[in-house]
Amino acid sequence: MALLELRDVRAKYGAIEALKGISLTVEAGEIVTLIGANGAGKTTTLTSISGLHKPSSGTVSFDGKDLTAVAPHDIVRLGLVHSPEGRRVFPRMTVAENLEMGAYTRTDKPGILADFERVYELFPVLRERKLQPAGTLSGGEQQMLAVGRAMMTRPKLLLLDEPSLGLAPLIVARIFQVIQTLNQQGVTILLVEQNARMALKIAHRAYVLETGEVTMAGAAADVLADPRVAAAYLGE
Amino acid sequence: MLDTVLQQLLIGLTNGMVFALVALGYTMVYGILEFINFAHGDVFMLSAFVALTLCGALGLNEHSSAAALAGGLLLCIVASSVFGGLLNLLIDRVVYKPLRKAPKLAPLVSAIGVSFILQNVGLFWGGMAMDVFGGGGQAAAPKAFPNLLPATNLLGATSKITLQPKDVLVIGASLVMMTALYGIVRFTKLGKAMRATAQDPSAARLMGIDVDQVVAATFLIGGALGGFASVIYSLYINTVHYQMGYQNGLYAFTAAVVGGIGNIPGAVLGGLLLGLVRAFSDQFIGAQWQPAVLFGILIVILVFRPAGLLGSTAREKV
Questions:
Q1: Alpha carbons B267 and B34: distance in angstroms, whole number
Q2: Mean pLDDT score of chain B
Q3: CA–CA dist A116, B29 (Å, integer)
Q4: Higher model confidence: residue B70 or residue B209?
Q5: Which pLDDT does position B318 carry in this prediction?
Q6: What is the CATH T-level fold of the domain A4-89+155-233, as seen in this structure?
Q7: Which residues of chain A does B313 touch, with a Cβ-Cβ cutoff of 8 Å?
Q8: Which of residues 42-71 of A touch B (CB under 8 A)?
């Protein structure tokens, strides 16, 4: 059984149908990437999973449990966390407080402390700035904080929306490295990316979205090699 | 001259503390929902009626024993705070919550409506034939609130400055409440969830914070602060009146905006500033000019600092 399964998910904003029946699966241990142009429905797919924007029809099941009737704040407790587009750190809270908010649903003090260490080891800059308001961090640091905050929930599945957006190439490389590290540590990842080439290089499988529909699916290497993908998303 | 200045400083400070406590209720709700709970002042007013009714039921007056007065005062404070908190929460659940996703004018107009309804409740309450209200009849008349604290001058009978036990209570108790609120917001899990929700409700949800619960807690705490303020205010001015929430609420709301709406230290600063300006204007310019002077100064402040004294207009890095 797949860790995450979407079956014929449709989502609407008013009269506009953003998802026209998406079906996809993510197996435990995988990195799966969703690529596609702006407005293809990538972000809506993620918000449909995390519950911020409930689907109008179709089912989302995680770990064998139907999520469509579960409130977003309860979905986190099941081990599914969504790190949203644009980082969305709490700007007037300190770095440490932001990480603490990631652990909001947890009560295992020793585990939380260990995860603080884990995040600080992965991103030493966050340790240096732990008492600084998150709004004063650079874009790259904020992205690291957003990933760290999501890690603090101890997720089985991490939904990452555009982690490379607006960042310098060196920082992007670092973020992608961390995504792979997390995956090796056992976190399953569903990654939405504009930077299709980078995403396809670290992913196991990929789905291509066009105007609310899946138009291609397969092993990431195959998708990367597909001439249509190269023409549309890789700038070749 | 110095005596006069010190006396007005004291009056301004005590009044300002009350404005600040009420302003906190406005600013906390605004911080999270970006919505002005215009009924907040009337929750304050009805809480005062709760205290007044309790005093009547217990037969408290100047002639009661010191122990009875102290116990009564404590009971009034607890009862009015609990009442204020619960009433505010009830209003949110029944009136505002169904309108959470409605256009912003809908909850605003509803809040003004609730304000008028509560004033009518206060009018009706004041019209009840209770001894403590002077036997009923005059529903709209101000009701005398008993002196639960001795009206002695702590600085001695010959001093030109009057400092009564109630002044000490107003300032001391307000400082305790503000410190407690600061502690809650700064250090507790609930307080952090409140700040996170105020800064980004969607991101808060994604971290597992039940935003609805946070909103409920905010209304509860804000209402309780208003209820608490109503007791010390009633003690201070010795009357309770069904329109006392309207004027004080408006002043407190103004204080919250001048301090920077949504900003907790700002509400306290705005309240104190308002109280002080009011006291000095009454003394040196004339009480008949109070609203004009007060709001004139506030407008000037807003012209130069549109986001309020502690409000931030600086954009955060995206």
A1: 15
A2: 91
A3: 32
A4: B209
A5: 35
A6: Rossmann fold (3.40.50)
A7: none
A8: 50, 52, 71
